[in-house]
Write a sequence for this structure.
C-alpha cells in the first residue's frame, strides 16, 4: 500500500513556527518515525507553499498512483475552492488533517472549504493527526 502526505503552506516551518501551537518537532523527524512504525506502507511526502503546486500533486497522485492522500492544506483549508475542486476531481480518498484543534482557535479557522469533499477530518491531535489518518487508510483497505 502506498499513501501520500501533502503539507501546504508554512508547514515546512514545523518545529520553528509557533511551537506553542504546532509543537517543537520538525516534520522530517516525525516522517522518519512514521515510516518505521508502518514499514508495510510506502509513504510519499510532498510539501509546498503554493496552491497550484498542491493541486498539481493531487492530480499527479490521484488517479491510481496512491491509495490515499493525507492532506494538511494549512491556511488554504479555509480559502481554497480550487483545492476542493481538485479533491473532488480525483479518485483517491483524501483525509483532511490539522495539527491544531482549528475549532478551538479563531473563527476564521472554523470553516473548511475542503471538509465536504474529503473522506473525513482529523484535527487537534498534534502530529499524531497524520498517523490517525494513515491508520484509517490502512484499516479501510484490509
Ligand atoms: C493547520 C491549521 C490552519 O488553520 C493553519 O493555517 C495552518 C495549520 C493545522 O495543522 O493546525 O497552517 O492546518
Amino acid at each position: 500500500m502506498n499513501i501520500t502526505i501533502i503539507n501546504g503552506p508554512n508547514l515546512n516551518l514545523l518545529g520553528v513556527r509557533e511551537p506553542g501551537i504546532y509543537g517543537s518537532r520538525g516534520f522530517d523527524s516525525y516522517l522518519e518515525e512514521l515510516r518505521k512504525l508502518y514499514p508495510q506502507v510506502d509513504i510519499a511526502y510532498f510539501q509546498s507553499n503554493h496552491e497550484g503546486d498542491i493541486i498539481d500533486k493531487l492530480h499527479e497522485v490521484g488517479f491510481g498512483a496512491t491509495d490515499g492522500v493525507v492532506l494538511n492544506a494549512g491556511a488554504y483549508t479555509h480559502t481554497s475552492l480550487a483545492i476542493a475542486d481538485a479533491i473532488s476531481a480525483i479518485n483517491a480518498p483524501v483525509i483532511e488533517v490539522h495539527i491544531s484543534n482549528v475549532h478551538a482557535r479563531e473563527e476564521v479557522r472554523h470553516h473548511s472549504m475542503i471538509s465536504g469533499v474529503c473522506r473525513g477530518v482529523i484535527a487537534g491531535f498534534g502530529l499524531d493527526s497524520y498517523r490517525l489518518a494513515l491508520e484509517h487508510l490502512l484499516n479501510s483497505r484490509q
